[in-house]
């Protein structure tokens, strides 16, 4: 029996060897496949966790952006009202001065100027802080990533503070220049319009379009100029006094300047301005509604085009709009800008750019 079994094995030895090799190969291949599958699963899990962590950090950063913008509205409003003080003129008018008409003309120009400046500067504030805080947010994400040395942060607290202080240009020299440009445009558009002349909401829209065309036209400064000084000495002055932070701060300012000069920034600022001026017209429309019981139904699409008010009545309406545009939190006007799709996409692109390690190798 055993001799027969041995003879059978010898006759089929090659088959047994081949089968054994095949079994071993399949086993090893299976083990290899399991190992690779585990590696892929671990890599996918790590990528998912990293992506979730990054998304959480981004979302948190956007909330910080929103709160920072809202906290900056009171000082912005105060700065505008200080430089364009219409309240002193209205107080003077109550004394019935001899030059009443001249004061009214000044009030007309100042009222329109400060409301339009409020729209421009609020949009600029929203977009500038979105750029700055997402640049900082991207670097902070990298600073907290695995493999980064805690002794060489990309955005130390002192650098962050000094970098973000550059917003003072918008509240200072930039705002003063913006006021000057807008005031010239308002004067050019409205100086010849009598206070007794009646204007409809469509007329108001046309006036705003003319003023915007002059402010944003190719002959003027780019809007980015009002946001951040492009003077090299000013950039150096803004840098932190501690030598080891100078280069970091100026680098952040230069990176911000590059972002402000980009087509994406111009597009998102233009979208914000269009949305903001549309919102301003919506606010004004409340004062141009036909009286209840009038012959023109208030729901008619063209009802607002047939209602006109003397410019003298429109001036105080326009004058008070700064309190809607730069209102304290919660500010519906600003929230509308913060939540726009253009703003969200732009913020995500800026954060993506500066939270990607490859950017550090440039």
TrEMBL record:
<dbReference type="GO" id="GO:0045046">
    <property type="term" value="P:protein import into peroxisome membrane"/>
</dbReference>
<comment type="function">
    <text>Involved in peroxisome biosynthesis and integrity. Assembles membrane vesicles before the matrix proteins are translocated. As a docking factor for PEX19, is necessary for the import of peroxisomal membrane proteins in the peroxisomes.</text>
</comment>
<comment type="subunit">
    <text>Interacts with PEX19.</text>
</comment>
<keyword id="KW-0962">Peroxisome biogenesis</keyword>
<protein>
    <recommendedName>
        <fullName>Peroxisomal biogenesis factor 3</fullName>
    </recommendedName>
</protein>
<dbReference type="GO" id="GO:0005778">
    <property type="term" value="C:peroxisomal membrane"/>
</dbReference>
<dbReference type="Pfam" id="PF04882">
    <property type="entry name" value="Peroxin-3"/>
</dbReference>
<dbReference type="GO" id="GO:0030674">
    <property type="term" value="F:protein-macromolecule adaptor activity"/>
</dbReference>
<dbReference type="InterPro" id="IPR006966">
    <property type="entry name" value="Peroxin-3"/>
</dbReference>
